[in-house]
Model the fold of this input.
Amino acid sequence: MTWTTIESGPLLRMEILRAALDGAGIPSLIPDAAIKVIDPFITGANSFDCRLQVPQEHAAAARELIVEIREEAAEALEAQTGPEVDESTPEERRERAAIDLGRRVIWASILGFTHPLALYYGYYYLRDTWGGRKPRGFVITVAAISFVLFFWVTVAVLFVQ
Done:
């Protein structure tokens, strides 16, 4: 019996497709599935991709079934989530963008090699939020910017001496 590859991708996706094919009576296998779980890098390039194989005589039916599965999944996802519509006001979007930028500043202030990013993002954060309504997390973001500035001023003063 000659086996042919009909699909490749992450192991979890291939296992789901293999179960669907087995449920339809089409024999299938994922070569090296067990070794991919234990040590994915031993199988070489594309270490996280697996191949789904079926016997040559069942290849066309298997491909048709996979197309049907994908169409059903897309319809179910669309029915569940509906069309994406952003109904937020421009003010809410600006506040959400400021909160996201503040989060970047805080995370960038943690490690020394990302301090330049904290200062760069901090400049834009302060420019966008200084005059208007303060977003959630404003105080901690300003504290993070102040910490980074204080740290590098201290380093510069100690280095000069």
